[in-house]
Amino acid sequence: MVVALNILLVIVSIALILVVLLQSGKSAGLSGAIAGGAEQIMGKAKARGIDAVLNRVTVILAVCFLVLTIVVAYFSRT
């Protein structure tokens, strides 16, 4: 059972890393200030939807990671 939990923990860890890397940065810096008008013209609603989904998936994976870590630590103690 501990081996299965460890494998699941590794899978969740890799998924969490990938989802965090897929997210766009919150502060785009100077390039965001210059290109900000173009984004409003072209439409950024789709990207905001994707970012919202990625944020939600990040929270879910982080909670799963935390719970799995505690469970693995508890069962590894014995």
Shape call: elongated
Report strand %: under 5%
Question: Span from first to last CA?
Answer: 12 Å
- DSSP summary: helix tally: 3
Largest sheet: none
| CA radius of gyration | 18 Å
Instruction: List low-pLDDT spans.
Output: none
Q: What's the overall average pLDDT, rounded?
A: 83
* Record field, number of beta strands: 0
What share of the residues lie within helices? over 70%
| Secondary-structure-derived class | mainly alpha
Summarize the structure.
By secondary structure, the chain is mainly α. Helix content is 85%, strand content 0%. The two termini are 12 Å apart.
Give short descriptive properties of this protein.
78 residues, mainly alpha, 3 helices, 85% helix, 0% strand
What does it look like?
The protein contains 3 helices and no strands. With 78 residues, the protein is mainly α. The chain has a domain of 48 residues. α1 runs antiparallel to α3. The longest helix is centred in the last third of the chain and has 32 residues. The model has no long low-confidence stretch (mean pLDDT 83).
Topology:
Layout: H1 2-22, H2 30-42, H3 45-76
